[in-house]
Amino acid sequence: MNDINLTLSLEEVNSVLNTLGTQPYAQVQPLVAKIQTQGSAQLQALQDGQVEEAPKTSTASSL
């Protein structure tokens, strides 16, 4: 599988999770769990001062 990296604000991630929450659990649970695991680790690292926040971008691009 090819991975891609996305930079989203906490608000945007929560919006994605809320939208996924309206879908059948069995279909979205693995993705929700992956987002929560990676997000939690990044937020904890930010709180611990281990990493800097991603730079803000004002342009949108499509895949």
Oligomer category: single chain
Poorly predicted residue ranges: 58-63
β content, as a range?
under 5%
Task: Kindly report the average pLDDT value.
Answer: 86
Q: Would you mind describing this structure in some detail?
A:
The chain is mostly helical and 63 residues long. The protein is 54% helix and 0% strand. The chain is built from two helices and no strands. It has helices spanning 10-20, 25-47. It starts with 9 loop residues before the first helix and ends in a 16-residue tail after the last helix. The relative contact order is 0.12. The model is unreliable at 58-63 (pLDDT under 50).
In short:
The protein has 63 residues and is mainly α. The chain has helices at 10-20, 25-47.
What does the secondary structure layout of this molecule look like, with pairings?
Blueprint: H1 10-20, H2 25-47
Q: Can you tag this structure with a few keywords?
A:
mainly alpha
